[in-house]
Amino acid sequence: MEVRPPARAWPRLMLLACAAVPARAPALAEPPAEARPPIVVTGTHDDPDAPAAAAESVAAERLRETTALVEAEDGLRYLPSLLVRKRHIGDTQAPLATRTSGVGSSARSLVYADGVLLSALIGNNNSTASPRWGMVSPEEIERIEILYGPYSAAYPGNSIGAVVNLTTRRPDAPEASLTAATSLQSFDQYGSRGIYPAYQLAGSAGGRAGPLRLFAAASHVSSRGQPLAFVTIARPAAAGAGGSPVGGAIAALNRIGSPILVIGAGGIEAQRQDSLKLKLSLDPLRGLRLTWQGGLFLNRTAADAQTYLTGDTYAGTLNIEGRPASVPASAFSNNVYTLAERHWMQALHAEADVAGLHWRGAASAYRFAKDEQRIPSLALPAARTGGPGSIVRLDGTGWDTLDLSIARSGSTFGAHWDRVRLENERYATSDWRRGAPGALVQAARGRTTTRALWAQQAVRLVPRLGLTLGARYEWWTADRGLNFSLAPALDVRQPVLRRSGLSPKLSLRWRPARLWSVTLAAGQAWRFPTVQELYQAVATGPSLTVPDPNLRPERARSTELAIERGGSTGHVRLSLFQERIRDALIAQSAPLVAGSSTLFSYVQNIPRDRTRGAELAFEQRGFMSDRLDLSGSATLVAPKVVADPVFPAAIGKDIPQVPRRRATLVATWRQSERAAFTLAGRYASRAFGTIDNSDRVGHAFQGFEGYFVVDARAAFRLGQGWEAALGVENIGNRKYFIFHPFPQRTFTAELHLSL
User: For 552, which of 223, 359, 653, 731 is 20 to 30 Å away at the CA?
Assistant: First the structure.
């Protein structure tokens, strides 16, 4: 059956969440440790640079019990107020949305793996600027931790929404593991129907020899995804006899409520991906640790398109339902492509305890050694065998980071440097499948550099009251900006930009009783423009225009009050938060030429927006029975555009892509030490994709629809290191859109061996 709860479903979930954590935890005997894997823990974290603030974490043992962990980003599925927009297994465009920012704001969160930056801060979007999750094999994950808000001076202003830290394994004894998994998705939308499978094989090995630790992990994923796009045309208003008669079009509405015809589907991806990781850790002297790690990610993707029109028709002057219509070749061919990626990263960490000081240093590099997408320009079906097209390359894009910190007795001082480089080029080619690059058609290049100094001081004011003060000062530069286009002609060398800003931080924690804490956190953060935001080009009829290469940085001022009660069997936390952003960088419609009435959509500084909200997060081991664990969250937000003189229609409207309500609930029943059964729900209300909220239809391609999805999983311990799991994701077969159509009912199976 299809699960479509009304709006009242969210209050029911929140009521259940409140009821799940009693004021007094039941006194139950703890089962053996091996039968009680760690579950989500709020308010505690291992990061010494993080002050007291809201945090969530989940361990690998719990993930294997509740989640089909095919890829690293799957581990965030049930954490409070977060969404990874993963459209199918193998998706390389999976940005992180937080409680105050949507899926198109990838630069408002940070993702790290053992201190290596995986966030692609080349842009602020849900495509090329998505985090590079594929650099982490699921087999190597030991723990995932989330820090909410920009309350730590150790992180740059991109921490406005959240910081994700992936911690990987560091073995103390010989170990090895092997995992085989598969999934089958049944998809049915418009005229597309089929079964879409995915397969995974992953393994790891590690050990220790004296002061040397070694860990290696590898993962291979082969998948076929459901359509990511639907090909549509406006429904012709007038009847007529012109054009070739065809059938098969499906009448529908687009997201603004206008009549359209759905004539096909595209972006049907077949992928093969490999990730490799090697980590070496050496303790040559007491108090000194050196760690090197390297990773490689390989991706081969081929995407196809499907027409609904009779006669295998993809383009031309047609007659649909007795109405003349013109379908250009690009309508389908833009949804056909191949993508070849070879990315690598490496990092060196050093930690030492000398003369009462704890020193930490880290340097990392991430490179798009190869990132090439090939797209045809001819009409299908002829284009499938070759012909003219385009080659889009990001080769040479990447970033470097360097961090140093010194800590002693609650005082921490640090320095940071990073450089982000974008190399984006488009070439013409006579054969889009195998041909060599021809003339350079378009190029966007540039780099940004950030230098920072920061400090934090933790002070115990009285036995039950602690204060953490911090500050971060950043110097930012953008240079080497270039916009080039062959036709229409454009060749602009952009000016060098320099900005700087101070970000003060404060965190005050009071413990009125043994199990209670009250935390007030406040912080300012500067989020500087990315290269893609600075050097975008917009087509204005026969020419190209660079809208604003002098964008100002976003300035966020965030506050949060968190009240938490926690003990050995669970916790409950209520957070009240507010985020105010000046000069928010959001795409909106406005004239490009002074005095013109023609509007174009491009990134601009929005004077003011504000988000207020409340978040309830909880977990309870042994809820009404020592065999039942519950965890979950409920979030209410009011996202609002406060001031926008350039586009007054946006004032008072919801910030794009931010739902007002979210909730999760995860229940795990342990029948015995060898069997655990999990039922989990994920809910979000609808959001808007446009800044003026004109997209009133959510259930449409490019719409932002609300959803309620239920997952089930059964995990078994078979003995002698063997584990197995069976699951169903989206049991009710909910069909919903978050711009793209999301996966429908999917069956999963896994087999895991640990040695």
Answer: 653
